[in-house]
Specification:
Helix content is 38%, strand content 1%. With 364 residues, the chain is mainly α. The chain has two domains: 155 residues, Cytochrome c-like domain (Cytochrome Bc1 Complex, Chain D, domain 2); 158 residues, Cytochrome Bc1 Complex, Chain D, domain 2 (Orthogonal Bundle). A two-stranded antiparallel ribbon has the order 1-2. Helix 10 crosses helix 15.
Amino acid sequence: MSKKYLFILFTVVFFISCRKDIKPIPKGTTPYTFEYPDMIGKYLPPIDEPNDNVTTEEGVELGRLLFFDKRLSADNTQSCASCHMPEHSFSDTGAVSYGIDGIAGTRNAMPIINVGWMEDGLFWDGRSASVEGQALEPVPNPIEMHQSWPNTLSKLQADPLYPSKFEQIFGSSEIDSIMVVKAIAQFERTLISGNSPFDKFVYSNFATGSSGWALDKEQLAYQGFAIFMDETKGDCFHCHGDQFNPLWTDNIYHNNGLDANPLDPGLAAVTGNSTDHGKFKTPTLRNLLFTGPYMHDGRFTTLSQVVQHYSFGLQNSATIDPLMKSVNDGGVQLDPQEQTALLWFLYSLTDSSFVTNPNFQDPW
């Protein structure tokens, strides 16, 4: 084969291989440009969108409409935002959430923050492998919105606004459940939080006053961070990461010593493995001031109670995580001053701009 044809062949193969990385968007739509805060952009890769659901400006806006639309519930009283409220960092204020029939759920509503990097398992038990999969569940769930997808789609189809939007974004005015959850997923992937005082503090290489806080509070938060990172003190970083992990979660499942005999099987209900009994996904530490109550069952109403649990309240059990090294002592035994410092570090991960972002509010 001549060098000329070898060159042509190489060029074609190279072009095709490059094209695999180009994710197509529907004609007539605009690619969405994700805005990554400094720490997020520095330490995390760009969000990897599914090839069949590339984020567009039009898709995000449609998803926002659907996220806040109460017609997704059978009696038109609840939307996704009813249990994932923007002002609470897209979480709920109750220990557990209640559906339209007044039936209580069994777990606390996890906040929707930075989920584009957490798609190896969503929900406390990791039963969903994608944001789209997570968004599919609540509508027909009998203790949540309690409405069949056919009834939901009939409502949306009859709306004068929706069919044309779905046609523009997904190529069909005949709405189906897959289109609905794809649009909601596009909106949820834009819910990126990473502009807290601690982010500013770290990004400025721990420069004094860089967080925007008073110097005494900044120093107290830094002391708390040192306790957080100290294996002989707080020993929190193994599950929640460090300054180089702006998600502040390891995305792994742990039994963190809440009960000697856990009633909720957690991850075991998904895997069928008894060694996973009582294990739940590590939640992010971001925006904790907005997301209480805490733990999978919302048993702790304050962050002080959470710190008290890890200090003195650990319970041993058959599946206790090995990282709970101080379980035989009841916890890490932080004194009141250390607990206060640790709390100020947790407060410093609060991104107030996230909960007030106008792009994340109810469009109706």
